[in-house]
Structure formats: structure tokens, C-alpha cells
Amino acid sequence: KQIKMVLEKRPIDFKALTNEMTDITFDVVMQRWKDERADELKILLKTHPCIQQMKTDFGKQNEEHIYNNRINFLKRGAHFPKVLEKKTSGNMFVQLSKNERELHIYDIKSVKTNEMDLLEKIKICDITHVVIGKNCKHSNLCKSAQQAFSIIVNHLENQVNFIAKDERTACYWTDAFNLLIGSTKRSDFYQRELDELVEMDVMLQILELQNIRIPRHAPPVPPLPSETKPPIPPKPDTETFIRMTKRKNHR
């Protein structure tokens, strides 16, 4: 490997060859091997059909984990500033019910004592749309437009506006709402976490094969045998059978 790396630099004479051999130490060669194995692994993860099937299977499993994570995030609830027409006033606490059928909105009277009054109950089945970011009318009240989101109830009959403390919290809440109402929209955080979980599961599965070359294509399947059962010998005729029996008795 060392000689191959030296020849890649095309030394012009023997002295240059010797100098290059001195510069390329064992550590350099080991690092090159590690880099090559890492590149091969990346290509394998992207192109090998068996690993693609594995990713699909793990993707379905991890989507269930992320679903539970998002729903539990709503069940724990969170504090949000109450959004009026063009300003915020006071705070509210929003929480998903344990049966996942209603959204409970509380008015916080005192932050210190955590005294709250139930303002409203919204049925999840009545939520028709989830609006995110700059599409929200109150996005100008946030430091970042990605912190703003709204839920539309019964096609604009009612609307609840939210300002999350950060983009991640907003994405978790909007993911949960979209999952509950059956929408296919997902945030970047959702896809990023799903990819990370799938990659982690795949790497654990092929951990023992990292130093083994895996063929890109499965070996060819051998052809089926021409006869699945051994041939049955023909039955002897009556005279031959009698003759063979007499020989056995004579012996």
C-alpha cells in the first residue's frame, strides 16, 4: 500500500522516491485505509439493494417511535404567550388529553403558583389545517418566523395562534398536529431524526461486516435439477423374478 501511494505521486527519480517513502509512514497508510473503508461503506449504504430494503423496514419501525415521541410531547404540554390581534398578552398552557381526542387550553393566572383556568377544549377531529411560519399572520411577533404556527378549526371558524420558544418546539408541535389529523406534512426535524435512527439501526446490523467485502450483487442461483426424484427402476417380468428368487433360495 505504501509503494502504491508513493507511485501515485509520480516521483521523478530514485531520490524523490526515497523521500516520498520516508514521508508516507505507517500511520499515513492506516489513515488511507480507514478513509477508503469509510468511502466504501458510504457507497454500500446508498446502493446495495439489501441495505435499501433494510432501511425501508427500519424506517417503518422508527416512524412509530417518532409518532409516539411527538404525541407524548403534546401530552406533557407547554406554555405559550397568548396572541391577540397585533400583540401578545399573558400566557396560556396547552396540552393534549390522555385519550388524544381533545386539545385543552388553559389561561395562566399566576406563573408563580401555576394557577390555571380551562379556557377551551378543541376536538382533534375538528382541526382542519396547520399553518406554519410566514403563512401565519402573527409571524411578525416572533424573533424567527419559524417559531409561529396556527391551527385552523372547522375551516376558519376558529383559529389558535402559537409562538414557540424555538424552531424545534414549533416543529414538534406541528408534526404532532399533522400526525393526529392525518396530514402528510412533516418538518425537517422529523425527517432528520428518522434518517439518523434508520442509519443507526443499519450500522448496528452490519457492524460485524465492516471489515468484510460485501458483494454488490447476490450470487447466481444454481439451476434446478432435471429430476427432483430418483428414477424408479423398471419392474422385472415374471420369469426373471422367479429365476432371481430361485437363485436366492439355492444360495
TrEMBL record:
It comes from the Eukaryota. Residues 217-235 have a biased composition (Pro residues). Residues 217-251 are annotated as: Disordered. SUPFAM superfamilies: PH domain-like. InterPro entries: PH-like_dom_sf, PH_domain. It holds the Pfam family PH_12. Residues 67-182 form the PH domain. Signal peptide: none annotated. This is Engulfment and cell motility protein 1.
